[in-house]
Amino acid sequence: MIDYLGLEGDLGEEERMVRDTARDFVENEVKPDVGQHWIDGTFPTDLITEMGELGFYAPNLDGYGLPGLSETAYGLLLQELEAGDSGLRSMASVQGALVMYPIHAYGSDAQKEEWLPALGSGERVGCFGLTEPEHGSNPSAMETTAERDADGYVLNGSKTWITNAPISDLAVVWAKVTSADGDPVRGFLVETDRDGVTTNKIDEKLSLRASITGEISLQNAHVPEENVLPGVEGMKGPLSCLTQARYGIAWGTVGAAMDCFETAHEYATDREQFGKPIAGYQLQQEKLAEMATQISLGQLLAHRLADLKERGDLRPEQVSMAKRNNARMAREQSRVAREMLGGNGITADYSPMRHLTNLETVYTYEGTHDIHSLIIGHDLTGIPAFE
Ligand code: FAD
Questions:
Q1: Per-residue pLDDT at 182
Q2: What is the separation of C-alpha 106 from the centre of its chain, rounded to a whole number of angstroms?
Q3: Which domain holds residue 192?
């Protein structure tokens, strides 16, 4: 796929191997059926364990059978998965960055032993419950509560827009612990078969259709003390997970744009109008040139992020910049690719329209474009403009 600036030359052997493995997987196992899954509103659940066997969940972490790959290798993996479909990359991001990461970073030894190998292999599926019906961009106003009882906590509240909730074995739920001195946010490992826990599927999405999204309802759901993530308290918990996932989105969105470019390039070369391929007309060449340029800039941003993350210097605001830019870039370029395909471009036979509608979600979740503008604005000025 497009690599105009020759970034391939900077990759190590392992990074190339990870990228090629993911690319082959997407080409052979995903692309043939993903259009139909998108139309049907289903996720290819048969691929969940195969993705685990291939090491696609949190491979940048180590221990508990995880390989500790470089951040570049991890990014390339997500790039390739999202070239297939944003729903596929969302699966890997949620399982890896939003469920395995908090257990790895903040969990007890027992929690790690119980969950990390099972989630890493795809034998179990997890989801991340932060957003609530009344609190999306401002999750710190969450209303879900955790009240202490004799041997643990009783959870009450509801979470919505939760990727994978209806097919999950485990939900990482963020809730406020009611106490006399403040209500600190804590993370709870909630098995979805517990009494008082229900997960409903949200139907009729017009975006990210090849991904299962749902609600989590918690009605006097009891969890024992050992299900609390012991290593973190406050909004730092969920926000640090979001930084990990946004890092993956910065890479993944570039993959979606790359797939759109390849599709438009091939189509324009084959499709003839007025006696020659449409790629021979200046208007179409300008579109390809702009698309290639914007994708290259997105790739540079993603690679730079990986270097900073690898050496421990990456700031959440820098991740915001890359998530914001690359999601917007992919959203805009997928529209141009769709346009270049003419009438055929609005069908599921070609990927750009599917990517385009998926990217509406990607532009919105994990912090909307607006919210990332405010995060960067706060960083640049020192003045918060959220309220
Ligand atoms: P709102 O916060 O109500 O925002 C509405 C609009 O107002 C947006 O345009 C926003 O940018 C703007 N806005 C809000 N505040 C400000 C402000 N201060 N200044 C200027 N403009 C503002 N959440 C999870 O917890 N787990 C998941 O797995 C998950 N998966 C998702 C999957 C899908 C398909 C979707 C669509 C969402 C998912 N989400 C998930 C939720 C997602 O993160 C939220 O939708 C997102 O944070 C935005 O919240 P909201 O939808 O409530 O919009």
A1: 82
A2: 20
A3: 127-227
CA gap 336, 97 in Å, rounded: 31
374 C-alpha to ligand 1 centroid (Å) = 14
375 residue type, one letter: I
Q: How many domains does the chain have?
A: 3
Identify residue 5 by its one-letter amino acid code: L
Q: What's the complex ipTM?
A: 0.99
Task: Tell me how far apart the alpha carbons of residues 357 and 210 are, in angstroms, rounded to a whole number.
Answer: 11
Residue 183's pLDDT band (cuts 50, 70, 90): confident
Does the residue 386 lie in any domain? no
154 found inside a domain: yes
Domain of residue 160, CATH code = 2.40.110.10
- Are 353 and 242 found together in one domain? yes
Q: How far is the CA of 325 from the centre of ligand 1 (A)?
A: 17
In a domain, 387, yes or no: no
* Cβ(83)–Cβ(92) below 8 Å: no
Residue to substitute in 158, 364, 369 for testing ligand 1 pocket (most ligand atoms within 8 angstroms of CB): 364
Please work out whether the CB of residue 244 comes within 6 Å of at least one atom of ligand 1.
no
Is 186 a domain residue? Answer: yes
Q: Which two tokens stand for residue 91?
A: 């699966």
CB distance 162 to ligand 1 below 6 Å: yes
363 and 273 belong to one structural domain: yes
Is 366 a residue of the active site?
yes
- Is residue 377 located within the same domain as residue 241? yes
| Cβ-based burial of 333 (10 A; exposed 0-12, middle 13-18, buried ≥19) | buried
Task: Examine the domain organization and report whether 81 and 164 are in the same domain.
Answer: no
Q: What is the pTM assigned to this prediction?
A: 0.97
Do 100 and 114 form a contact (C-beta atoms < 8 A)? no
